[in-house]
Amino acid sequence: VIVLSILSVGYLTYRRFEQNTLEEVGNQLSVVAQMKSDELVDYRKDRLGDASVIFKNKALSRMVRRSFAAPGDAEPRASLRSWLNSYKSFLHYDRVCLLDTRGAIRLSAPASNEPLDALLAMRVTEVLRSRQPTLVDFYRNQSDQKIYLAVLIPILSVQDSARALGVIALRIDPATYLYPLLQSWLTW
Fold first, then answer.
1. What is d(CA 4, CA 64) in angstroms, rounded to the nearest whole number?
2. Over 90: is that where the pLDDT of 166 sits?
3. 2 vs 39: CA distance, rounded Å
4. Separation between Cα atoms, residue 54 and residue 82, nearest integer Å
5. Alpha-carbon torsion, ordered 91, 97, 100, 105, to 10 deg
6. pLDDT higher for 5 or 32?
7. Is this model's pTM higher than 0.90 or not?
8. Where is average pLDDT lowest: 24-28, 134-138, 160-164?
9. 3-state secondary structure the chain
């Protein structure tokens, strides 16, 4: 009877310890998952915040209008190229393109002959119609078969906001931030 009592108390103590431990680990995992989820939401908000700054940039709109109106004029093209390069360098986008309303690439940083992906070309039409910045979910690029995200921002005329001049495409390589973030979940 004493041995059975000791075994019963030991078993019940072990079960209570096991349940408490599982509950504590579950709570910790929930907190970590919520933190990671919040990081992803913040990342998305930051990308849309970048888009908002571009979308409301009247100076950029004027440069685009001048560049498209006079393709031979080197000054607006140089200003646009500088602007695209700075956006790529400082905000860590993989590629930044200026597209006309037909989806043709007019300028690209870095300079490249790589064509615009068909999915993005299709989405350019939608962005021009909606006149709102859009985050394009994960897609496989036809040229290099890599996975990317993109932010498409319509450039509207300063004089007539109903008229779109073109689109800025910000391509994001998820391997630079998102994939490492997701992989860090597994090593917690």
1. 85
2. yes
3. 55
4. 15
5. 180
6. 5
7. no
8. 160-164
9. CHHHHHHHHHHHHHHHHHHHHHHHHHHHHHHHHHHHHHHHHHHHHHHHHHHHHHHCCHHHHHHHHHHHHCCCCHHHHHHHHHHHHHHHHHHCCCEEEEEECCCCEEEEECCCCCCCCHHHHHHHHHHHHHCCCEEEEEEECCCCCCEEEEEEEEEECCCCCCCEEEEEEEEECHHHCHHHHHHHHHCC
Give exposure, 7-31, as e/b (b: 16+ Cβ within 10 Å): eeeeeeeeeeeeeeeeeeeeeeeee
What's the chain's average pLDDT?
A: 88
**109 token code pair:** 């940083």
Query: Which residue matches tokens 């090593």?
Result: 187
Token pair belonging to 108: 């690209």
Place of tokens 């709109």: 61
